[in-house]
Give the backbone structure.
Amino acid sequence: MHCYFVLPGDPTIPILYHVERVRDGRSFMTRTVQARQKGKSIFTTTCSFMREESGGKKVLEHELPMPDGPVEALQEIVENDRAFAPPAHERVSRMIERQLGVINQSSPNPHTRKTRQWIRAGGRISRAGGQDTHLGALAYMSDSHFIATVPLVHSARRIPSGVRVDNKTASSPPFTRLTEARRGETDPLKSSAPDRPTMGMMVSLDHSIYFHRPREVVADDWLLSENESPWSGEGRGLVFQKIWSKGGRLLATCVQEVSAYNFLFF
């Protein structure tokens, strides 16, 4: 599934979806979907579907194992969730997350740092929803931490919405949970490191999802998400994401490019 975010959408008006049947083969089928508002395309995606068991009886198999450490952290998370009532916002949230922080944060090279978090859908997905609902929930959750990865591996701060810098007002970025208040900093424009970058606004440019084991996705159970950025520059950043089941099976790999042109230094 390859998605391109073309223009901002308006939640107050309907979206028209134009679907084109590109190809119907014996093993693969291809569709393109265009979401339109006010006569303009705001989102496009190309989806490739594979018939089950069309790969043959003998296949070459390998997969990247889940890293050590997160499983032990999940056990503690589950115990804490049982001992304490969930926060009010989680009772109605579409997604539950438990962040494990930045891995290799002491490294001087941002491309060697990674972010990890356990995620799952809020509530339970009914059997009536079918497996497609689990895949849709995974796709939804996969977008939650992508855009924050580039500033996190650079130890960047965000500028809160409404703060003016160089006669420009920063828009609220999507990673509002990763605020300076959680890091213990009361003033988001002050830092002990004078060359520490500050992030104003970021937007997703495109998003690709490769479902490796679609029939094994259980989105209302805990999934491990690991993000890393091999490159950023020229006003853009690239992020890779891997998603494992709690049993260690690699379920999906995702790639996203984000705009990162608003880095400022104080």
Observations:
- Helices lie at 70-83, 130-142, 146-153.
- The first strand starts at residue 2 and ends at 5.
- The first helix runs from residue 70 to 83.
